[in-house]
């Protein structure tokens, strides 16, 4: 990262600007804008998230907002209602109130004397969700959006229910927001009201996991703000990006294929990070791309921003399995349109533990009656312990490890050794002709790159709750022994497989703890010949459609100064007790105490997750998310501690949660929840 101080415009910052909503609630904004914008109004760019502009995102914000402001924009960072220094209570994600507030904020911005009436929205993750969802509401001043690491489908392509299977990140993210939604504002900004505002949050917040568990199928709760239900609602230009190591690797191409507005897509090798901070590398000069986007769509500058391919992506080369990478080898490639006519869907039958027919291997063989015999699998609960996180955050190392041990409990299909390089770009599809031994079952499919030494690097994966074979809105129990056709996509990816390697498809009936297991162990029978893997093969014999311009090196403004007071600690441990047959995955992300020079504030964040099970007792699965957040300045010392535990029986989920607030080490608030939710074909 190259830090730039000599920007085209001198800027100034206002740390706490109150924006009053129609119901009287005030939202807190931090605004960076050119010093001459009072005389020469500029467009305004909004980032709208719940992660505390005063402290927790202040360093990150200081890199990109002053940079964009220095190129002639008013950058506005607003804390959502009920978070940071904004008034109110945050009760859930992406509510109607949140989006209505955003529309009011945009209208307020457009009316300011330093704004020329044109606005944009940008963000990563929640901020990108917010921008896309608000764009679909078509506020009059919103001219364009820039979004990174997002989804257009809140049910099936977020951290909740992948393919109708419950993800453990549903618990982890609920635990995160249980903590974030109950944090106090800063007395230095809101004054003596801070305690009243804090206790209003403590009193009115419930564990979000309870609401998420009450909607186990795709219903109106998830349809709200899922842009995939009406792509035509988005009428402004969209610059969309993500990373192949992120959980949100699919929505960029869906937007490219379904929107009918000016749009560009960018997918790198990154985890859940902005591309100018991208890990694994290479990071790129993303902020330069963003400024060009705003220059064209908010200022009307003819700078050729729409030239070149619609999609630019990093074609990843083969790598040994590892839980983290500093950089992924590969190259940038481009596609003029998406879906791309150059991508060929190659259907590969699954026969006798072989994948037949992808480029560089043998062609499909003539089928015999034996090809339709079934192969069976009943996976142990240990399959999935090396799966990594649903979305890689790169801290601690959270990518999948060598898949050979996972494959021991799976049904495995391999190609022959490749005789030539094979590249895929897009979402592989698995179609299975199968039977199940139980009425509720799931299947996990993993695609791996197998090196000549046998090491297996997971390339992508997908899940399907088989009760959702006919749709996620009305799941139906399976009839044991009845044959079903189950078709589902794996996550999109760009991956090259070199000569001498094999492509492997692995199928398992559990994938714990990445996904919650079904109520009972299940034996799946998969029929040969009539089951297939379809690969999106990109030609290697044609010249690359290269991006028009190479990306520049990452740039940003000088970050705010901070000092690490106590060391961070990270841990990712898989444990197995061979006496009690207990399996355990422990994840610790402790940021230590950090001192922020600008505000004189000391901040600590500690997140702990634990997932356990015993032998193959599928009802023994248990997940825990615990957070400790501390804020200290002089005599002001507050702490929030949350703990959420999810357990199950064959019929129900059990949620045990606690919330404690401390002031100067004295507990001033405490509440607990012990509730149960029926399993809904899950």
Descriptive notes:
It is a single chain. The chain has 682 residues and is mainly β. Among the domains are: 171-219 and 561-597 and 600-682, no CATH class; 347-538, Jelly Rolls (Sandwich), CATH 2.60.120. It is built from eleven helices and 35 strands. The strands form six sheets. The protein has a ten-stranded mixed beta sheet with strand order 2-3-5-4-6-7-10-11-12-13, with helices on both faces. The longest helix is centred in the first third of the chain and has 16 residues, at 96-111. The model has no long low-confidence stretch (mean pLDDT 96).
Indicate the radius of gyration in whole angstroms: 25 Å
Please tally the helical runs, counting DSSP H or I stretches of 4 or more residues. 11
Anisotropy-based shape: globular
Provide the structure class: mainly beta
Approximately how much beta-strand content do the residues carry?
A: 35-45%
In the CATH hierarchy, what is the architecture of the domain at 347-538 at level 2? Sandwich
Report, as a whole number of angstroms, the end-to-end distance: 45 Å
Helical content band: 10-25%
Task: Using the coordinates above, name the CATH class of the domain at 347-538.
Answer: Mainly Beta
What about the largest sheet?
A: 10 strands, mixed
**CATH topology value of the domain at 347-538:** Jelly Rolls
How many β strands by DSSP?
A: 35
Low-pLDDT runs of 5+ residues are none
CATH superfamily of the domain at 347-538: Galactose-binding domain-like
- Looking across the biggest beta sheet, what order are the strands in? 2-3-5-4-6-7-10-11-12-13
